[in-house]
Amino acid sequence: MASPRLETYCCPNRDAATQLVMNFQPAVFCGVCIGSASVSLLLTILQLLPKKGQSPRKMPKASSSSTILLLISICDILGGFGMIFRSSVWLGFPGFVANISVVNGTDVWPSTFCVGSAMWIQLLYSAGFWWLFCYAVDSYLVVRRSAGLSTIVLYHMMTWGLAVMLCVEGIALLYYPSLSSCENGLEHAIPHYITTYAPLLLVLVANPILFRRTVSAVASLLKGRQGIYTENERRLGTEIQMRFFKIMLVFVICWSSNIINETLLFYLEMQPDINEVPLKNIRSAALITWIIMGVLNPMQGFLFTLAFYGWTGWRVDLKWRKREIPWESMSSSTVGENTYPSPVNYQSNIHDSKKISTTDSQQTDEAISMLSEGNTSSDERLTRSSPIYQGW
């Protein structure tokens, strides 16, 4: 699971709340993390692999949104590998991890492993949060026709730059001036928690607003494409809205337990003695949400693929296929048709005029198809309702 408590556990003088959750059934907790992360990894990779009997979807042009969705899944996969590795070491070598508790110990490898693995998990899940925010921004810009594949470079710079900067800054403030003196005061811990949860809270607040604006813009595009708002277009808009709803639902399910757990642990930290009897229910709630985090955090990768693409099936096609490049096929067919070109091609001129008259409709179809990519029924209805399909 991804929690700033993983970094604070690396401090030998960790606070009592962190000590409470990290010492609660560590073998069971590590086993839960390994099991949940392993299942999520296998199912996520299965979802992303090509399937037998399914032809690759042909897009009018490359989609930055589809690239972002793939990068979100990659971040979840790599973060899951980090969870499995960290939990396996903790479960297999308890004596190695126990050396972290020794103040001024001569063996630096336990602390190095603790800090390195925690930073790996935090960095990748933080990058996943930023990519999810970029997906919401890109969806809105695509509908507004203000984005394209070239903007993916800006998204890379923003996502990886902010993720690395916040991760390094939070770790540096937490461990300053050394591991033996971290967690001596809230001035060390609070900046670390802020840098960890800032992208998560940004997605919770900003993405619903951006998704709502995108859905409204999609409805306007569908109405203006042919001047009418048919049942198929209404259903297509509803499916795009449901896709955004599923994405946010998965995100809330997987990470709401983290926010609840941190709230409870911070409340316990503010108490003079967290072992008091009146705090028993709060301690129990913190421990329960701690285990829930170990289950739900790694499952985000698989649940996101369900929200993105739906269930893609079990039949995996591992045969390598050469994919036809759209512009290459267009050029070859053009050469074949115009081997002996005439000085004036009236048919081509008529075709060009028709293409100009349907440019806006094609751009609308491209924008909608990018948002509904992965939904076969939506793609088919979009194709049948487009002017190109109707023989314009």
Notes on the protein architecture:
With 392 residues, the chain is mainly α. It has helices at 5-8, 16-22, 26-48, 64-92, 94-98, 109-143, 152-175, 186-226, 231-269, 280-309, 326-337, 346-357, 359-371, 376-385. It has one domain: Rhopdopsin 7-helix transmembrane proteins. Helix 3 (26-48) runs antiparallel to helix 4 (64-92). The longest helix is centred in the middle third of the chain and has 41 residues, at 186-226.
List keywords for this structure.
single chain; mainly alpha; Rhopdopsin 7-helix transmembrane proteins; 14 helices; disordered C terminus; transmembrane; receptor
- Under the CATH scheme, the architecture is Up-down Bundle
The helix-strand sequence is: HHHHHHHHHHHHHH
CATH class: Mainly Alpha
Write down the Rg.
26 Å
The CATH topology name reads Rhopdopsin 7-helix transmembrane proteins
Strand-pairing-aware structural class:
mainly alpha
Low-confidence stretches: 57-62, 322-359, 379-392
What's the structural blueprint in terms of helices and strands?
Blueprint: H1 5-8, H2 16-22, H3 26-48, H4 64-92, H5 94-98, H6 109-143, H7 152-175, H8 186-226, H9 231-269, H10 280-309, H11 326-337, H12 346-357, H13 359-371, H14 376-385
